[in-house]
Amino acid sequence: MDRLLFHRFSAAFLTTAFAALLAGPVLAQTPAHTHDAASPHKLSLDRGHRWATDEALRNGMDRIRGLVEPRLGDTHAGKLSAAQYRELATQVEVEVGSIVGNCKLEPKADAMLHLVIADLGEGTDAMAGKNPKLSPAQGMAKVALAVNEYGRHFDHPGFKPIRNVH
Q1: Residue 95: per-residue pLDDT
Q2: Interaxial angle between packed helices 55-68 and 136-153, expressed in degrees from 0 to 180 and rounded to the nearest 10
Q3: Residue 31, pLDDT score
Q4: Following DSSP, what letter does each residue of 91-111 receive, concatenated?
Q5: Angle at which helices 107-127 and 2-22 pack, to 10 degrees?
Q6: What is the pTM of this model?
Q7: Which of 157, 150, 153 is nearest to 44 (CA)?
Q8: What is the mean pLDDT of residues 129-142?
Q9: pLDDT for the residue 10
Q10: Helix ranges restricted to H, the chain
């Protein structure tokens, strides 16, 4: 049952994200903070400063980093099986779902976060074998790079970038 709920949540999230892309100009004009808001196309700082975060975001990104960083050596060595990549992708997706459901950022910071989330989604799709253009190892690298981009653009005290991302 939990897996069924997860897949339904994932499908709903992806449908919402796709709808946001299609309706971007309309949603961008709404004043309310939602996770459906259209996002800019390039990560940037907030007038030279990192974007504010909240506890839910910091905890979720720490957990994603903790899932990915220890497995990069195995990724580079070609030691992860397709099943291991899928499992790791599922774990990252659960954390992303928690971030999306619980973080409360101001709209501009939220828009920047959605760029990171989009990269995490692309990476987990590749890890799960859902993107024929990227291998699972490339997906893992994409997730690791997204985590590092988050660290460069969001204020997260004590955050350490993932090393040895190729």
Answers
A1: 98
A2: 140
A3: 36
A4: HHHHHHHHHHHH----HHHHH
A5: 120
A6: 0.76
A7: 153
A8: 96
A9: 46
A10: 2-22, 24-28, 55-68, 72-76, 82-102, 107-127, 136-153
Among all chains, which residue has been given the structure tokens 């990252």? 92
Rounded to the nearest 10 degrees, the angle between the axes of helix 82-102 and helix 55-68 is 170
b/e map 36-69, b = 16+ CB within 10 Å:
ebbbeeebeeeeeebbebeebbbbbbbbbbebbb
Distance of CA 66 to CAs 38, 39, 43, 76, 88, Å?
A: 29, 27, 23, 17, 11
Query: Could you tell me which of 125, 105, 127 has the C-alpha nearest to residue 39?
Result: 105
Q: Are 143 and 124 in contact (CB under 8 A)?
A: yes
Q: Which residues contact 83 (CB under 8 A, 6 or more apart)?
A: none
Q: How many CA within 13 A on the CB side of residue 143?
A: 35
Tokens for 98, please give them.
């928690």
